[in-house]
Each structure stands twice: as C-alpha cells, then as structure tokens.
Amino acid sequence: MSETLPAPAANNTFERIKRINAEGQESWSARDLARVLEYLNFRNFQPVIDKAKEACATSGHAVADQFAGGVRAEWFKP
Length: 78
Fold this sequence. Notes:
By secondary structure, this protein is of the alpha+beta class.
C-alpha cells in the first residue's frame, strides 16, 4: 500500500530555509541548519555534519553526491 505524504506546512522551519537550484535540487546550508538547531558556534556543529556523512556512507550512499565541500557545506536530497 502506498500512501502519499502530506505536503510540509509553509511554516515548517526546514522548508523555510531550503534552497532550490536551477535544476530543482533541494539543499540546506549547514550554517542555516546550525542556526535553527540553536548551535551558538558553527564549529560545534561540525561533529554533527561528520556524523551525518558517516551515516550517509554506512547507508551505501556516496558522501560526495550528498554533501558539497568547503566552508558552506550543504546537504542535497537524492
């Protein structure tokens, strides 16, 4: 049985900070995520990013396909 998930509410924090590029790919800025998750210093959020990359690799996904490098690392939905 396939159920359709409801569309996210416009007031959903993660939907508000989502970015969509010209190809329609959705992404979230790590810095924006750190802010909404109330990290006071971005350097304290880096371990969260590292753990997410580890989980990505463990689940069989290519980390390079899901995370952009650099200071403004972003996560892309498949």
